[in-house]
Specification:
Structural class: mainly alpha
Oligomer: single chain
CATH topology of the largest domain: Rna Polymerase Sigma Factor, Chain: A
Order of helices and strands: HHHHHHHH
Distance between the termini: 42 Å
Helix content: 55-70%
Radius of gyration: 17 Å
């Protein structure tokens, strides 16, 4: 992997973006819902760029994966350690979501692409994981069946689109649309949930 020179303008831009997003996240965690929305919006832009470089052969999966990562960031925000770089924490989450997608697609050749192996991973304990699962299920239960079921079957149970279609009686295109719209609805519900908590 080619390293960016320490005096490069690109590195300075990356550091500035990290500082801006980190400040927004911390403000959001302190109860500022507008800052949190700005954090999620800014992060989604960076994630799309990150994923486009790595998923050029799977362009249709990028938006769903961005939403998966944002949902994971939201559910694990309590694990962010403010003495650590935000980039490492987000990239660790993105890395594992990306690996999950590539494994589910059996893209063995894509698994050999470098995915920033030097990043630290913050593991949640069992209690935190149970809380996150409960939060996700609470939010999912607020979605209509045509969005909730596709997400449950494809994202949580790991079924393929065709398997989810067979399990629900929906068409494959309805499953894809349901996942896409459902993930957007979940992101909106996350923001509402944060507002209520603040």
């Amino acid at each position: 992997m080619e390293r960016i020179p320490t005096d490069s303008p690109a590195l300075a831009d990356m550091k500035a973006a990290e500082q801006r997003l980190r400040a927004l996240l911390l403000q959001g965690m302190a109860g500022d819902s507008q800052a949190y929305q700005a954090f999620l919006k800014g992060l989604s832009t960076h994630l799309r760029s990150f994923l486009r470089r790595r998923l050029s052969s799977l362009p249709d999966d990028i938006e769903d994966l961005v939403q998966d990562i944002l949902l994971a960031v939201h559910n694990q925000r309590h694990t962010y350690r403010t003495d650590q770089p935000l980039t490492a924490w987000v990239n660790a989450i993105a890395r594992y979501k990306l690996i999950d997608l590539l494994r589910s697609r059996s893209g063995r050749e894509a698994l050999h692409d470098p995915i920033d192996d030097d990043l630290a991973v913050f593991a949640a304990n069992d209690h935190d994981a149970a809380d996150a699962r409960r939060d996700v299920h609470t939010l999912l239960n607020q979605l209509p069946d045509n969005q909730r079921l596709p997400i449950v079957h494809t994202k949580l149970e790991g079924l393929s689109v065709s398997e989810a279609a067979a399990a629900t009686g929906m068409s494959e295109s309805a499953i894809k649309v349901g996942v896409h719209r459902g993930m957007k609805a979940l992101a909106a519900l996350m923001t509402q949930s944060l507002r209520r908590a603040s």
